[in-house]
Specification:
By secondary structure, the protein is α+β, with helices and mostly antiparallel strands. The protein has helices at residues 8-20, 56-64, 94-103; strands at residues 24-30, 34-43, 46-52, 66-71, 77-89, 115-128, 138-141, 144-145.
Length: 147
């Protein structure tokens, strides 16, 4: 157990800081089942994924409209249930492309015409480090921060 249990406000601040950090790698789960590692960007309160339009992850996410994004090690977890806001070819999203490339170590706009951005709206966010933070781990519900 950790020495200091974070408040919900601190967990929210830590979550937003991690999402905005350079090169955020996450596990993305979609129906299928598919669980893949992807680099994400945080842009205008949305999670942005970049992948090939024909990948199982993209196909599943477009079909179901939902994904779960997991960040961090097992003792500093952020779980984000998301809803697909929209998707578009990387060539048709200059602002999103700039934001994604600016946060990460590659630019998907150079990956070819089959790459798309998947824009995800957080619906539920949970964050905890160890068992002493399980209580109060839900920071967002139904798209609204609880803090």
């Amino acid at each position: 157990m950790s020495d200091v249990v974070r408040t919900r406000a601190q967990r929210k601040a830590d979550t937003l800081a991690r999402l905005a950090a350079p090169v955020v790698d996450a596990w993305v789960a979609t129906d299928g089942p598919y669980l893949v590692p992807l680099t994400v960007a945080w842009h205008e309160d949305r999670i942005v994924l970049a992948t090939d339009r024909e990948s199982p992850t993209a196909r599943s996410l477009i079909a179901t409209g939902r994904a779960r994004v997991g960040l961090g090690p097992t003792r500093d977890v952020i779980m984000i249930d998301t809803v697909l806001d929209r998707w578009l070819p990387v060539s048709e999203a200059p602002g999103i492309g700039e934001a994604y490339a600016g946060q990460n170590d590659w630019d998907p706009r150079t990956a070819g015409p089959s790459y798309i951005f998947l824009i995800l709206r957080p619906d539920r966010v949970q964050a905890w480090r160890e068992v002493d933070e399980i209580r109060g781990r839900t920071l967002m519900r139904d798209g609204a921060w609880l803090i």
